[in-house]
Specification:
The protein folds into 3 domains: 3-98 and 474-500, Uridine Diphospho-n-acetylenolpyruvylglucosamine Reductase, domain 2; 114-238, Uridine Diphospho-n-acetylenolpyruvylglucosamine Reductase, domain 3; 242-448, Vanillyl-alcohol Oxidase, Chain A, domain 3, CATH 3.40.462. 29% of the residues lie in helices and 22% in strands. The protein contains 13 helices and 22 strands. It has an 8-stranded antiparallel sheet, sandwiched between helices. Strands 6, 7, 8, 9, 10 and 11 form a 6-stranded antiparallel sheet that branches. A hairpin with a 2-residue loop joins strand 18 and strand 19. Helix 1 (3-21) runs antiparallel to helix 2 (54-67) and helix 7 (257-274) runs antiparallel to helix 10 (383-393). The longest helix has 19 residues, at 3-21. The structure holds flavin-adenine dinucleotide. Flavin-adenine dinucleotide binds next to strand 4, helix 4, strand 11 and helix 9.
Length: 503
């Protein structure tokens, strides 16, 4: 029997199983699932399954083990490293409905949060104090955005939130995402206290509950290799009172990107050593970053930030932390005379964060081309060198670098914005490859995709010690080897999908 016939045979068996088990699915040429936020593809998948709960996941995994079918978990598909793309013959498992549906199976964004303490005992948020260590018990298909809506009325928030607040907790855990809250709580995996995962034996599915914190941390960043995570206890934190917090806006401008980076890198090094903060973010300002009629331009404090003399570059840096952790910041800023420092209100901080989030995101009739995000610069003293190389490589392109200041380094994101034509998208992709070549260098202390995960490059570019750990975890949780077996192959490489867009 040919491989194609075998493949079709197993797809037919799987379709019969899904119909029998009444698990929603879609079959055919699934162009919409050919890529994720990476623009990489392994081909067009032909079957995607949408389980709503752990029981459906367990039934699906059981079927996969018995019939030797590879499964590729997928959350929102916002990952930028190709980890949520499926090679031919494997089945994509869309987990956005997981633990997020009502009794009739409809996904609901509004829900009443279940809160537990560190031992997993139910807790009452109305009676909780600011020092209580609490977790929200959520389905893996839930997102930070909807959970924050559910918690806001109680004055609490998810502790670690990536800019992609719409991504699923299952995806945040599998990529060990970072974001707002990471300076205080670490990457997402450090903020998870317990999880449930549908793993395998050689004979079928098994459901495991993992409560050992060290094991949870090892599993964080598993890239879907070990099983379907169904439920997590995710750390939450009280929303601090405005009077206990400091929000600060620091701004510097120059013609020379290298000089800006060297100065701000020096300042960041001091801040990392002397301050404690929840969020540290930077972005470059250019004419196109907010619309001419955006109300932020009229804000008496913030408006001037968006007026830029010709030929100059402006970089702004935003910090938010408790007053006691931020005492040193004005003094540190004063040591850098070119840096303007001012305290702003929380609503002003939020308005600038909205600009910061959108700066990598949206553009009318243009598309963001990923590919060079993210990279971390471990030594802030090299920030200037990296920015000089970066601006030289992307000369003439639109889009701007933005990123985070974490205590362990500076995380940089950059996506050019291309017109929706094949030529423009391909030119942007080629430019990104040039940029990667320029900055992904050990002498610059730069490491690739520390934040978004290595994805398809996990076993090509990851460290040997992490490879060993992942192989051990995979053997333990997935002895049947049904979850993303392709990721273990160093030669696996995604194809850029931009050339095949129908525009
Ligand atoms: C505009 C934008 C902003 C972003 N900002 C950030 C940021 O600030 N910080 C950051 O770290 N990342 C960021 N990202 C990257 C991405 O959003 C994160 O990696 C996110 O955590 C991925 O979640 P997802 O639900 O989209 O997962 P997907 O992309 O669908 O999948 C990612 C990985 O998770 C696995 N997976 C998903 N769900 C499960 C599950 N339930 N069980 C087992 N495995 C699972 C998949 O197999 C895959 O390996 C951003 C992306 C975009 C497009």
């Amino acid at each position: 029997m040919s491989a194609v016939a075998r493949e079709q045979g197993s797809i037919d068996e799987t379709l019969a199983f899904l119909r029998e088990a009444r698990i929603p699915h879609q079959a055919g040429e699934l162009l919409g699932y050919a890529t994720d936020g990476s623009f990489l593809t392994l081909g067009v998948p032909t079957l995607v399954v949408f389980p709503k709960d752990e029981a459906e996941c367990a039934a699906l995994v059981d079927h996969a083990v018995r019939h030797g079918i590879a499964l590729v978990p997928r959350g929102t598909g916002s990952g930028t490293a190709g980890a949520a793309t499926a090679p031919p013959g494997s089945v994509l498992v869309d987990l956005e409905r997981l633990g997020a549906c009502d009794a009739r199976g409809h996904r609901r964004g509004l829900f009443a949060p279940i809160v537990v303490d560190a031992r997993g005992t139910p807790a009452d948020l109305a009676k909780a104090g600011p020092d209580d260590e609490l977790y929200v018990r959520v389905g893996a298909g839930r997102t930070s955005d909807e959970t924050n809506r559910a918690l806001a009325g109680h004055g609490w928030t998810v502790a670690v939130v990536p800019s992609s607040g719409y991504s699923t907790f299952g995806g945040n855990f599998a990529t060990n995402a970072r974001g707002s809250g990471t300076p205080a709580f670490g990457p997402f995996g450090n903020a998870v206290n317990r999880l449930r995962i549908v793993a395998t034996t050689r004979e079928g599915a098994r459901v495991l509950e993992v409560t050992d914190r060290e094991e949870v941390r090892r599993l964080a960043g598993h890239h879907g290799l070990c099983g379907l995570v169904t439920e997590l206890d995710v750390r939450i934190a009280p929303i601090p009172k405005p009077e206990d917090m400091v929000c600060a806006l620091l701004s510097i401008e120059s013609e020379d990107a290298g000089h800006l980076g060297a100065t701000i890198g020096g300042l960041m090094k001091r801040v990392a050593a002397e301050c404690r903060y929840f969020a540290g973010e930077f972005l470059f300002i250019d004419e196109g970053i907010v619309r001419p009629d955006d109300p932020i331009r009229k804000d008496p404090v913030l408006g001037g930030t968006f007026v830029l003399p010709a030929g100059r570059r402006r970089m702004i840096l935003l910090y938010r932390g408790r007053k006691e952790g931020m005492e040193a910041l004005p003094r540190i800023a004063a040591e850098f005379p070119e840096v303007a420092y001012r305290e702003i209100t929380f609503p002003q901080f939020r308005a600038l964060m909205a600009v910061r989030t959108a700066a990598t995101g949206k553009a009318l009739r243009r598309v963001n081309v990923p590919g060079a995000e993210d990279f971390i610069i471990y030594d802030p003293a090299r920030f200037g060198d990296v920015l000089s190389r970066m601006f030289a490589a992307v000369e003439g392109a639109s889009g701007r670098p933005v990123g985070h200041h974490y205590p362990d380094g500076i995380e940089v994101h950059y996506r050019p914005q291309a017109a929706v034509t094949r030529a423009d998208i391909e030119a942007a992709w080629a430019m990104i490859q040039k940029l990667r070549e320029a900055v992904l260098r050990t002498e610059l202390t730069v490491e690739d995709r520390k934040e978004h995960g290595l994805g398809l490059a996990l076993f090509r570019d990851g460290s040997p010690s992490r490879h060993e750990e992942l192989r051990r975890l995979k053997a333990e949780y997935d002895p049947a080897n049904v979850f993303c077996p392709h990721l273990l192959l160093p030669e696996i490489e995604g194809r850029f999908i931009g050339s095949s867009f129908r525009v």
